Amino acid sequence: MKKKQTSLEGQVAVVSGGAHGIGLGIVERLLQLGAKVVASDIDRDGLAVSRERLAKSFGTSIAVQAADLSKERGAQALHRAVAKRFGPAQILVNCAGGGVIRPFLEHTPETLKATIDRNLWTVIWCSRVFLPDMIGAKYGRIVNIGADSVRNGLPAHAGYNAAKGGMHGLTTGLAREFALNGITVNTVAPCAVNTEVWAKVKKSNPRLAQAFVDVIPMGRVGEIEEVASMVGYLALPEAAFVTGQVISVNGGSAML
Which residues form the signal peptide (predicted)? Predict the structure, then answer.
């Protein structure tokens, strides 16, 4: 039996949406596992603050690149920056997102487009630009951050679920297409998570926030570290036989 590979030493990881919240937690987790990490986000100032904090512990293993990844040119610029700084990436975590949560008929064309752009097009463009390097190396890990609401049908989530559901479908399609290339593609689907965004929802709409908690048998929201831990596992070499899966980190809000 082969020895389990429980480190990311020598590997390069890219995390979109890495300036705040779940994305930032994932960046830190991959750094702890030994990877060199490039965090990307549309929030240039937020990236700078996070890089400064992480550099105190991880030195030059952390780099950042501001980009609008909902545009193909933004993903291409990120790919060039990663290659220049660290070389080809073996790990891609698609965490960029942030939807407009509201009843479907209260959406505008602009809010629907923004939700699809942030949560689906970012994944499509980043996957397209980073996959060729993984194919060439016959190795890769793609982990998408989906949403448990696709499975449990939370209130006011139809538009958001359309985008995240598309991501879930892309996951299975890419996993099958590249299964013989040494590349795994999976989605981690959290329920509500204790982030700054969650704090704002609780303050602005406590009734809606409570509805999100009511579907969770454990009676609480998730923690960033609980999501990042699952992503960290899927990024490891030892997760080689896990692909095409949507793995919920959800306190039991959807089962099987």
Answer: none
